[in-house]
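no rush on this but wanted to send it before i forget. what follows is a protein written twice so to speak, once as letters and once as structure tokens for the fold. mainly i need to know what kind of three dimensional shape the backbone takes. thanks a lot i owe you, the record is right below.
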Amino acid sequence: MIQFIKGTLVSIEEDRVIVDVNGVGYGIFMSVQAMSLLPQAGAEVKIHTYLNVKEDAMQLFGFLTREDLMIFRLLIGVNGIGPKGGQAILSVLSPDHLRFAVLSGDVKAISAAPGIGKKTAEKLILELKDKLKIEDALEHKASDGGFLGKAAEGDQQVHSEAVQALVALGYGSTEALKAVKAVSLEEGADVESVLKAALKLLL
């Protein structure tokens, strides 16, 4: 089992990143949420991973913290949700937003993920309601040794919510991600100001 990958970020693609570890390029599938918080190519990153072994392929799914990986493991433990489905949910909802959605019974928010229908969302809520705590969503935790600890936590949240808003407006995940990353984030900037600046780049 590969617990994590630590190396140089080479590129960010549609649904995965490429990380160079001593000359070997690892393709790691990640959610839009997670990719929106990554630094620019060339920076060192540490990505926690889940190795999915199938008959015809081995796939690495990546997460910024061990906590995010734990949420992913809970998701794929629900009957009917595979790794791709779990990643789709985490592309629409951050781990904290997912907790709120599950604990509040928000079927609509969860079923907004591609490939996740109403019945699957209801099953997910039923199975995870007792496994997730509201306190965990309210308590902001620093990254465990990755690059995120170097950035302001508020900035991370602003980036993430701005990407979500653009995707909700109909923009593709990749173009939304690139637009938000291209915006210079001033200290204390809120989601609305970042969203407006990103929309100017897209229009």
User: Anything to note?
Assistant: Residues 137-152 have pLDDT under 50 and may be disordered.
